């Protein structure tokens, strides 16, 4: 079978993880990673023997002066690839897109870009099929991914009427907390509803979801609290069974010592996950409460990791190397070691 | 007019604030404060010329050895007072209560104690009248006080059907953050619903309220997010008018630079409030959103300060020096400088 050649533009928080995940797939080949940096971060790519490309000739010189072996520029990488995943910082991707389009190269952007950029927003368990053969898509953000995963499970079980969520957002990514962050305060988003609710509707317009969000002084992961109006009265076990239909929602228990975000992070490190990544939504089984036709629950989202399996599936859908969503999801889950229970 | 003699047992986070507030009232006299500590904290009481008492003879010796002038023990203070406010740490008050009862002394406990301890839970704008002449009451906790204040306003306007809240709780009090605290994590409460919803119902059983709570790594104040099902569709101005009927809910605006808990704290310090205390619930006017018959809003609660005016009113109700709640609330608000808008 011919392997799909995947290029990655931007070797940052998401890009480096996508590269590692692509390298694990037996139906994909990493065509190369492109960046502008010259420090330890890109040297990791060199050590992993990933082909490294520079954004343009100027950056190529800088990178070569720093002793980094460069295979070419973004233009060269574009020629070598079947698809490119743009992992550049928010708002920068929009400029790169013109280049991809000129070269008739399929591309994926991140959740930070607007839905209109591609006209399609992706979440594997919800709408894999609609991405088949597409020229472009947008893998929605970490928070939105978690919302779509969990609510899709409730929707498929016929239980979802409407969902109202409060999102506690980590202030910044761990390795960037010396650059920006917040301390000893809470910073609410200016607007209620926050953007994540409407964003989930770009994947699935049927979801009746409203969110409010607040930045909190920690770097590990997000924490969501949900209040869901069910279509009818239901039992706790029935709701848990609905969540169990998602292969990317893992049930956890407070009584098992998983009583805080840092405990969950430590478990991921103990499981030898790269960077201690958690690809799953970790949802508290014992905390979950059903009262009549109302459902309450909380879960943790690893904002650096949750979109990685989604991105791998988006590559398969767009290139049609796998037309069945379940097959792709199973393959991705196995390669990354996802679990449905911790 | 004879002044009511108020004793305070426990000169900690709440006790020292109640003492200062009592000293400001023209119808009250501070009979004394009682504690067991010998360090700078109780020396502040001495400097303010508050009569200082020791919990018992042993502590009296220790305090006198530390150079603190002690007027007697708790037993002596009990004899001098018309009412005592117990501000000792959680669970300790229960043991003190026997002494108050033996002496036929009216007493107030804090929200950390159980409702059953007194059989009455107090929040001035909701149930002042039911506390008139009582032998004891419990001033509900900071979070519960904020819930009762805001929901009472909506209830009185005929707008409240049910309220669902997510509470972000400061990890510990500012001056104790070197003793205990949390860092770079989030710690959900084990149970949903959390205790604050049922606790609000000890004041007003009519409130249909469910809460979930999580500890966050900051020390300044709590932040609540609410989703309220209204009895009918309503306009934003109508909802704001309902909140304006509470003299202890102050509207704030994000657009005015009050965009985070620390900004609000700094404003309180700039207003020369003692300790930078905020007695009001600070509710974001511009963030508040009404969608059909659903209402969304967020507010900040100063957990060290919000119960102080409530305690002053509880003293007036129980001693019947003022039988009208509005008169007491107005008097308290004026003495502490409460505002309805920042």
From TrEMBL, chains A, B:
Tell me which Gene3D superfamilies the record gives: Dihydrodipicolinate Reductase, domain 2, NAD(P)-binding Rossmann-like Domain
Which residues does UniProt mark as catalytic? 142 (nucleophile)
Positions binding NAD(+) in this chain are 35, 303
Task: Extract the Pfam families matched here.
Answer: DapB_N
Keyword Nucleotide-binding part of the UniProt annotation: yes
Q: Could you name the Gene Ontology cellular component terms for this entry?
A: cytoplasm
Q: Which SMART domains match?
A: Gp_dh_N
Q: Name one GO molecular function term.
A: NAD binding
The chain's coiled-coil residues are none
Sorted UniProt keywords: NAD, NADP, Nucleotide-binding, Oxidoreductase
Residue ranges of every copy of the Glyceraldehyde 3-phosphate dehydrogenase NAD(P) binding domain listed in the record: 4-142
**Alphabetically, which GO biological process terms does the record hold?**
glycolytic process; lysine biosynthetic process via diaminopimelate
Q: Does the keyword NADP apply?
A: yes
| The EC number(s) this enzyme carries | 1.2.1.59
Question: Which CDD domains does the record associate with it?
Answer: GAPDH_II_C (cd18127), GAPDH_II_N (cd02278)
Q: What is this protein called?
A: Glyceraldehyde-3-phosphate dehydrogenase
């Amino acid at each position: 079978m011919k392997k799909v050649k995947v290029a990655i533009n931007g070797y940052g928080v998401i890009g480096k993880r996508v590269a590692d995940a692509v390298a694990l797939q037996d139906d994909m080949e990493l065509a190369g990673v492109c960046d502008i940096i010259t420090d330890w971060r890109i040297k990791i790519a060199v050590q992993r023997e990933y082909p490294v490309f520079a954004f343009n000739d100027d950056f190529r010189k800088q990178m070569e002066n720093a002793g980094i072996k460069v295979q070419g520029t973004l233009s060269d990488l574009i020629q070598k690839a079947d698809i490119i995943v743009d992992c550049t910082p928010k708002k920068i991707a929009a400029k790169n897109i013109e280049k991809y389009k000129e070269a008739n190269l399929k591309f994926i952007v991140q959740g930070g870009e607007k839905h209109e950029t591609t006209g399609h927003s992706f979440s594997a368990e919800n709408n894999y099929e609609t991405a088949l053969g597409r020229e472009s898509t947008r893998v929605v953000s970490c928070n939105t991914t978690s919302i779509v995963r969990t609510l899709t499970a409730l929707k498929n079980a016929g239980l979802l009427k409407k969902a109202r969520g409060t999102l506690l957002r980590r202030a910044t990514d761990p390795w960037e907390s010396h650059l920006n962050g917040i301390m000893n305060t809470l910073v609410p988003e200016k607007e209620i509803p926050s953007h994540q609710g409407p964003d989930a509707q770009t994947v699935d317009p049927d979801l009746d979801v409203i969110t409010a969000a607040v930045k909190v002084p920690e770097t590990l992961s997000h924490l969501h609290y949900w209040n869901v109006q069910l279509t009818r009265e239901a039992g706790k076990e029935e709701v848990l069974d609905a969540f169990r239909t998602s292969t990317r929602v893992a049930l956890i228990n407070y009584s098992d010592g998983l009583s805080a975000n840092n405990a969950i992070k430590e478990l991921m490190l103990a499981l030898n996950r790269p960077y201690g990544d958690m690809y799953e939504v970790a949802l508290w089984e014992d905390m979950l409460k059903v009262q009549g036709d109302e459902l309450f629950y909380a879960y943790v989202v690893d904002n650096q990791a949750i979109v990685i399996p989604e991105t791998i599936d988006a590559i398969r859908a767009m290139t049609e190397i796998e037309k069945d969503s379940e097959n792709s999801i199973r393959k991705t889950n196995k390669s990354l070691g996802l679990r449905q229970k911790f």
